[in-house]
């Protein structure tokens, strides 16, 4: 395994661990999701170059599009949550009350 692959795998693993264990604020959860998407995007961008495959160059653009949509939806949820509950702490949210 090359050091480049190791760094992308470790970035994805650390961001997923951050999402799993540090769920106090919605902003930190959104940042962990964005770092996961960024590591997947960079991995998908480098993979066709390493394999000399020109057929899979569309996949990083689709991933970037979905990542932008996810970021916009997450920020809209952050604003709506802050307006209704007064903070972005995740322990204040209860799905049964919605």
UniProtKB/TrEMBL annotation:
MF-aspect GO terms: NADH dehydrogenase (ubiquinone) activity; oxidoreductase activity, acting on NAD(P)H
Keywords: Electron transport, Membrane, Mitochondrion, Mitochondrion inner membrane, NAD, Respiratory chain, Translocase, Transmembrane, Transmembrane helix, Transport, Ubiquinone
TM segment ranges: 6-22, 29-49, 61-80
Keyword hit for Cell membrane: no
Localization of this protein: Mitochondrion inner membrane; Mitochondrion membrane
EC primary class: translocase
Catalysis: reaction(s): a ubiquinone + NADH + 5 H(+)(in) = a ubiquinol + NAD(+) + 4 H(+)(out)
GO annotation, cellular component aspect: mitochondrial inner membrane; NADH dehydrogenase complex; respiratory chain complex; transmembrane transporter complex
Membrane-protein topology: Multi-pass membrane protein
Pfam family, one: Oxidored_q2
Signal peptide: none
Role, per record: Core subunit of the mitochondrial membrane respiratory chain NADH dehydrogenase (Complex I) which catalyzes electron transfer from NADH through the respiratory chain, using ubiquinone as an electron acceptor. Part of the enzyme membrane arm which is embedded in the lipid bilayer and involved in proton translocation.
Entry's family note: Belongs to the complex I subunit 4L family.
Name under which the protein is recorded: NADH-ubiquinone oxidoreductase chain 4L
Gene: ND4L
């Amino acid at each position: 395994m090359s050091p480049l692959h190791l760094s992308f795998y470790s970035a994805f693993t650390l961001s997923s661990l951050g999402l799993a264990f540090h769920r106090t604020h919605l902003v930190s959860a959104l940042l962990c999701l964005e770092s996961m998407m960024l590591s997947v995007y960079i991995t998908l961008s480098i993979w066709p170059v390493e394999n000399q495959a020109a057929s899979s160059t569309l996949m990083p653009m689709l991933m970037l599009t979905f990542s932008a949509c996810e970021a916009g939806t997450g920020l809209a949820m952050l604003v709506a949550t802050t307006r209704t509950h007064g903070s972005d702490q995740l322990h204040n949210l209860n799905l049964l009350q919605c």
